[in-house]
Every structure is written in structure tokens, then in C-alpha cells.
């Protein structure tokens, strides 16, 4: 994936959203027609060990010592590297490394696995608490052109952040890590990795949203990602947003958006849709996601559109012990990948059974813990499926695409044939062409392949695209 022409960060996010969701929709349609394809995305949990004690963490639901258990059951470095290779050969597009533990607790596994992921040119994302990075780690990650680093920071100061993470000094270490990434990116003259601050929204920090944009600007981060706290334990019950906070939240979201535009920091907030409109339904039903997923799916008569969750057709989660799931909230593992290949597991009987169960709206109670951003993902995928099936929509979008492409080609020709090349104009043209090529219409057109419709499109529009 080439990143030379997709700055600022909102272009990166646009690329991820449009390509991933288009790919999701394409593969789901193929599955529905009987053609089985590999997963688009893998979420990997390298370890369950962690050095913090966050008050709102999912670790609170486990009665056993996860650090001790993880040390006994973790997969080997060699198996993780092999899995990265298998996934590249199976057509996986995206690896996201996070999980119940802190990935940097197993640097010996993490860094070689990241290298293999990039060797197959897959998009790589790492989520970390940011407290264990040393300069040699950061230098290596920048050098391999890893795509995205997300550092968890829950407040604009140490008082808020450290109280939620329950270990003193975490704010200082996390902010230092971001600064060192910025340093090495400048040293390598690289735009990668993009740096995102992840924030868990709760009663303590919701008024601090605008200040988080300022912090991102100060540190040199590119984006702020915010999602509401999911209640896993009664110890964090006092942090859940109440009716008053929910009513006040849109005001702070709007201020955050305005500051984001001012400082060129992209705010992505899971309580809002693509137009940054506040979704009160999700805010009020943080722990009732199952109901939302099923009710929204029942609005559609089309069997493909009425599936409440599409994750089993594009997503695979691999836990530290080798157990696999199609979702982090699903309680029953679908087998182990320690001794089976990725292909055997993904196309196996257990995954196929889950796909049938989900198709019939039989989501388990654990789906209530689903994150708001996943609900928005399902909406986006459903829209992509609908757009790909609407001939009129496609015709209109193709005509727009041709017009935009023709105009840009003329601008490029003019910029290149002037005696003095206008570098700024060239950069703008490249950025706009990149947006066109990552647009939903362009991706759908490519997916037609050698079909009758595809040949017709190539005949009519080939010289423009």
C-alpha cells in the first residue's frame, strides 16, 4: 500500500473505510452466491499479559490470574510468524494487534510477526498502552513502514489517565512514546505509522474531549478515536454516562470536531455516524447492542441485508492460546489454530455453523457487549452491499467518476506540460486521483472482473478509468 499521496490522516481513514467496507461487502456477496473466500481482517491477541490494572478493562470479568495463565498457554513465536505468512497467501488485507493483554509484553513475538505482516504488504495496526516502548522498538517499527499505531490515553493529564489505568506514571510514558514515534518518523522522513490516541469515554473525561484534540496536536498525533466505556464489572459502574451526560455530550462532540478541523486532527467518535451526528440510541444502550443489531437487520426483507452481523464472513480473531473466534465477545471458541492451518479453521465446520446461526438472527447474550463502532461497521457494510446491487446508483456514480477522472487528467496534463512544473498542483491531483481509486464506485467496478457487466464497463469507460 502506497502512502505518499494520502496525507493528511483523514485520507488514510477514508482509504481504510472505503476499501475495507467495499472488500467486506464484495466477499459477503460472493459467500452468499456460494463462492467461499478467506477473511479480510485478523485481530490478533499476542499475549494476555498486562502491566496495568485499568478499572474498565474486560480483564475484570476473569477470576483467574491472566498473566500467569497466559505465560503457560501462549503460542510460540514461530507459529505466529507462520500464521502471518498463511494469512498473506489466503488474501487477508488487515491485521489488528491488540486484545486483552498488552502486546508489548511479548516484544520477542510481536516485532517479528509485524515484519512478516508487512512482508506480505498487509495493512498493520497495533493498539498499545504505550508504556513499554524503547527507542530501538520504535525505530524498527518506523523502518518497516508499519501502518498504524494506536496509543491509549484517557485524559489530557496524568491525574485523569493514571486514575483510570490505576498505575502511576502511565500518562508520562504513553505521551513520551508518541513523541518518540514522531521523532523517528521525521528522522526517516516517513508518514508512517499514523498515530492515533484511543480514548475510553466515561463520566470522568467526557467534558475533556476538546482538550484531547489539543493534546493530540501538542504530541504530534494524527487522530483521536473515542468509544464509550462498556461495563464489564460493577467496580466501574460509577463511570457509566448517565442521562445528563448523554444530553450534554453533543455539545462537546461539536467542540471537538471544530478543534479537529482547526488543528488538522481527525476525531472519530463511535457515538456518531459518518456525518458526525450524535446517535443517542447507541449512547443509551451501551450494553444492549444485541437488540440494536437484530432490530436493524429485521427492517430488510432481502436475506442478505437482514443478516444482523457480517463478522463471520470477513473477520477472524486469534487469541494468545491459539483459540479462534469470529468475534471478541463470542464466548465459545471455534477451535484452535495451534496445529491446524488458517485455511482449515476458516473453512471448517464450526465457522460454517456460526454463519448459519447468525443468518437466522440467533445472536447470543454476549453480543450485548458489542462495541458501538462495530454496530456502525455493520451499517456501513449493509450500505455497501445495497449500493453494489443498485444498478441505477452505479450508473450515476460511474458517470460522476468519469467526469472527475477526465477533469483531473486535464489538470495533470496542464501541470506537466507547463514550462515550470507546478508541484503543488501535481500533489493535489495525485491526492484526488487516489481518492477516486479508493472510492466505492471504483472498487465495485474492479470487482466486476471479467463478467458481462465488467466487459461492457471496460468497453464504454475503459479509457477514462
Give a verbal description of the structure.
This protein is an alpha/beta fold. The protein has 2 domains: 377 residues, Aldolase class I (TIM Barrel), CATH 3.20.20.70; 71 residues, no CATH class. It has a 9-stranded mixed beta sheet with strand order 7-6-5-4-3-2-1-8-9, sandwiched between helices. α1 crosses α14 and α3 packs parallel to α4.
Overview features:
alpha/beta, 18 helices, globular, TIM Barrel, 9% strand, 2 domains
Task: Summarize the SSE layout with pairings.
Layout: H1 9-32, E1 41-44, H2 66-73, H3 77-90, E2 94-97, H4 107-119, E3 123-128, H5 135-143, E4 148-152, H6 158-165, H7 170-188, E5 194-201, H8 209-219, E6 223-228, H9 243-263, E7 266-269, H10 280-284, H11 289-297, E8 315-318, E9 324-325, H12 342-346, H13 349-359, H14 372-389, H15 391-417, H16 423-437, H17 440-447, H18 452-461
Parallel strand pairs: 1-2, 1-8, 2-3, 3-4, 4-5, 5-6, 6-7
Antiparallel strand pairs: 8-9
Helix pairs in contact: 1-14, 1-17, 3-4, 5-7, 8-9, 15-16
Q: How far apart are the termini? A: 20 Å
Helix content: 40-55%
CATH topology of the largest domain: TIM Barrel
Which class best fits the helix and strand makeup?
Answer: alpha/beta
**Mass-distribution shape:** globular
Our count of helices gives 18
CATH architecture of the largest domain: Alpha-Beta Barrel
- What value does the average pLDDT take? 81
Beta content comes to: 5-15%
Task: Tell me the count of domains.
Answer: 2
Give me the strand/helix succession.
HEHHEHEHEHHEHEHEHHEEHHHHHHH
Number of strands: 9
Radius of gyration: 22 Å
Low-confidence residue ranges: 1-8, 272-285
How many strands, which pairing sense, and closed or not: the largest β-sheet?
9 strands, mixed
CATH homologous superfamily assignment of the largest domain: Aldolase class I
Strand line-up in the sheet with most strands: 7-6-5-4-3-2-1-8-9
- Class of the largest domain, according to the CATH hierarchy? Alpha Beta
Amino acid at each position: 500500500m502506497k502512502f505518499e499521496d494520502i496525507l493528511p490522516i483523514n485520507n488514510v481513514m477514508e482509504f481504510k473505510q472505503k476499501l475495507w467496507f467495499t472488500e467486506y461487502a464484495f466477499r459477503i456477496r460472493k459467500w452468499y452466491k456460494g463462492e467461499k473466500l478467506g477473511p479480510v481482517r485478523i485481530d490478533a491477541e499476542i499475549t494476555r499479559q498486562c502491566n496495568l490494572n485499568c478499572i474498565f478493562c474486560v480483564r475484570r470479568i476473569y477470576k483467574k490470574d491472566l498473566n500467569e495463565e497466559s505465560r503457560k498457554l501462549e503460542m510460540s513465536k514461530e507459529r505466529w510468524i507462520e500464521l502471518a505468512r498463511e494469512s498473506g497467501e489466503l488474501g487477508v488485507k488487515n491485521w489488528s494487534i491488540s486484545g486483552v493483554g498488552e502486546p508489548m509484553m511479548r516484544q520477542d513475538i510481536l516485532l517479528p510477526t509485524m515484519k512478516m505482516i508487512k512482508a506480505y504488504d498487509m495493512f498493520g495496526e497495533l493498539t498499545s498502552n504505550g508504556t513499554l516502548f524503547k527507542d530501538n522498538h520504535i525505530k524498527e517499527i518506523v523502518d518497516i513502514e508499519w501502518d498504524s499505531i494506536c496509543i491509549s490515553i484517557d485524559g489530557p493529564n496524568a491525574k485523569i489517565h493514571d486514575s483510570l489505568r490505576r498505575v502511576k506514571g502511565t500518562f508520562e510514558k504513553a505521551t513520551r512514546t508518541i513523541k518518540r514515534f514522531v521523532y523517528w518518523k521525521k528522522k526517516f522522513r516517513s508518514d508512517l505509522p499514523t498515530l492515533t490516541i484511543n480514548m475510553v469515554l466515561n463520566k470522568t473525561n467526557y467534558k475533556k474531549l476538546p482538550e484531547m484534540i489539543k493534546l493530540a496536536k501538542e504530541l504530534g498525533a494524527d487522530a483521536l478515536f473515542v468509544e464509550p466505556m462498556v461495563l464489564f464489572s460493577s467496580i466501574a459502574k460509577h463511570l457509566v454516562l448517565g442521562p445528563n451526560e448523554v444530553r450534554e455530550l453533543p455539545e462537546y462532540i461539536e467542540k471537538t470536531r471544530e478543534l479537529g478541523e482547526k488543528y488538522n486532527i481527525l476525531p472519530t467518535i463511535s457515538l456518531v455516524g459518518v456525518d458526525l451526528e450524535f446517535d443517542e440510541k447507541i449512547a443509551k444502550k451501551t450494553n444492549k447492542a444485541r437488540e440494536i443489531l437484530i432490530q436493524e437487520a429485521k427492517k430488510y426483507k432481502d436475506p442478505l441485508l437482514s443478516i444482523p452481523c457480517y463478522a463471520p464472513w470477513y473477520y477472524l480473531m486469534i487469541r494468545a492460546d491459539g483459540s479462534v473466534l469470529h468475534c471478541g465477545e463470542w464466548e465459545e471458541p471455534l477451535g484452535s489454530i495451534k496445529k491446524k492451518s488458517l485455511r482449515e479453521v476458516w473453512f471448517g465446520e464450526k465457522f460454517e455453523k456460526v454463519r448459519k446461526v447468525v443468518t437466522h438472527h440467533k445472536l447470543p447474550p454476549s453480543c450485548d457487549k458489542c462495541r458501538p463502532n462495530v454496530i456502525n461497521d455493520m451499517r456501513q457494510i449493509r450500505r455497501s452491499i445495497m449500493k453494489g446491487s443498485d444498478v441505477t446508483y452505479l450508473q450515476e456514480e460511474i458517470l460522476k467518476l468519469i467526469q472527475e477522472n477526465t477533469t483531473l487528467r486535464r489538470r495533470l496534463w496542464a501541470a506537466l506540460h507547463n514550462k515550470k512544473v507546478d508541484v503543488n498542483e501535481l500533489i493535489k491531483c495525485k491526492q484526488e486521483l487516489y481518492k477516486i481509486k479508493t472510492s466505492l464506485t471504483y472498487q465495485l467496478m474492479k470487482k466486476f472482473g471479467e463478467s458481462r457487466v465488467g466487459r461492457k464497463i471496460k468497453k464504454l469507460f475503459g479509457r477514462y478509468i
